[in-house]
Structures
1.
Amino acid sequence: MEPVQIHFMNVGQGDAILIDQGETEVLIDGGRKSPGTVEYLSYYVDDELDIMVATHPHDDHMGGLVEVLEAFEVGRIYHNGQESKGRFYKEFMDAINQEEAEISVVRLGDTIEAGDLIFTVLNPATLADTVNNNSIVLLLSYGAIDFLFAGDAEKNAEARMLAQKAVPVPEVEVLKVGHHGATTSSSPLFLQVIRPVVAIVMAKHTHDETIENLTRIGAEVYVTDSSGTIVIDCDGNGFTVRCERESLFSPDSPPAITSLTVDR
C-alpha cells in the first residue's frame, strides 16, 4: 500500500482533516470560513478532491466547505441529511447542488471508498437526539492501523455505537477526539473500549476532565491549539506524528518529527 498522510489542520475551534494518499484526497469537514483552509489544501490538492464529508451541520465543521467547493472540484460528497436553519447550511447546500458531484447521505454500516482508503460509518444509525450526536463518525482501517474520526459525537452517540452489533467498535491507534475535547464526549467507557495510542483534540480550549480521561488510558494527547497543525504519516504497519507551532505550515518547511513513532 502507498503511504497515507493525515493532516489535522489547525483551524481554531473547528475540524478540518485532509487524508492524502498519492493521487487520492479526502476532506472531512472544513472548519469555519477561512482562507487558510483553501490555502493549505492547495499545497496537496491539484484540482479535485475525491471525497468531501460534512459530518454535521454546525458552522465550525461545515462553514468552510463552501470556499473549498469554490476552489476545487469534488467527486463525491457525503453528509448525514440533517437540516439546519443556519445561513452556512443554506450556502453549503446551494454550493453542493451546483457541483457535478455524486451526493449521498450515509448511515451506520455504509462504506466510503477511494483508492486504498475504506471508511466505515459507525454513526448515525438514524437521525435522533442532538445535532452533535448525529455526527458522521468514520473508521479508517489502513493495514494494521485504525483511525477513528468522531466528529462532534457526544456520550449518547458513543453509547449507541458500543451497543449496536452491526459494526463492532474496535480498539484504534488514533482517535480524533469528539466535540473538540468537551466534557460532553469521551466517556471513560468509550475510551476503555477503543484505547487509542494517540488522541488528537482539535480545539482552542481544552478540558481537564477529558485530558485526564485520555491520559489515564495511556493515550498521547495532541491539541491543535498548542501543537499547531498535526500530520500523521502511516505506512499501514506503523505511523509517525509530526506537529508545528504555527497555524499552518508549508510543505517546503514541514513540521519537525516528534518523538512519537508507533509500529504495529
2.
Amino acid sequence: MQKILLALILISSPAALAAQSVSLAGAVRSNALAPEQPRLSAAAWARIDARIASAAERGVPAAPMRSRAADGEARLASESRIHSILESTETDLRTAQRTFARQSRWASEAEIISAADALGYGASEAQVASVVRRAPADRPLVVALTTLAAMVGRGDSPERATGVVEGQLAAGASDASIAASAGGSRRAP
C-alpha cells in the first residue's frame, strides 16, 4: 500500500524530481541528450531561469516551474510557449497559496504543489478550498490533494473527484486509503 502511495505522489507531482536541480539550463544540458546542443539558446535559458528566480523571490515554489520548463524543452516547445507554461504554473501555485491562506491554514511546499497540480488539471479554487476546509487542521493534505489532481487529470469530473476525496477525509481514512480511492474511481459515461 505504501508503494502505491509513493507511486501516486511521484507520478502526479513530477516537480519533486526536479527539486534537486540548481540551474535549469545546466540540468537540461546534462540530461541524456547531452551530445546534442540544447534547442534553446543560452540567452533564452537565462531569461527562463530569471523568470523562475523572480517567482521564487516572491515565495512561489521554484521546483515545479523548473520541472515544467524542462518538460517544455523536452517536448520542443518554443521559448514563448515555455514562458506561457511558466505563467500558468506560477498562477496555479499562487492560487494554491492564496487558497490555504484564505482557509487560515499553513501549507507545506508539497501541499501547495499538490494543490497547484489539482488546479492545473481542472479543479477549481473552490473545490481545492473545500478539500482544505474539510480536513482536520493537523492533517497533512499532500495525499488528498495529489489524489484529487490524479483523478481529475485522468478524466474524472472535478466535482466527483472532490466528493470522493472529501468523503474519505470525512471518514477519517488513512492516506493509503485516500490514494487507493483514486484507483477505484472511473470517468462518468
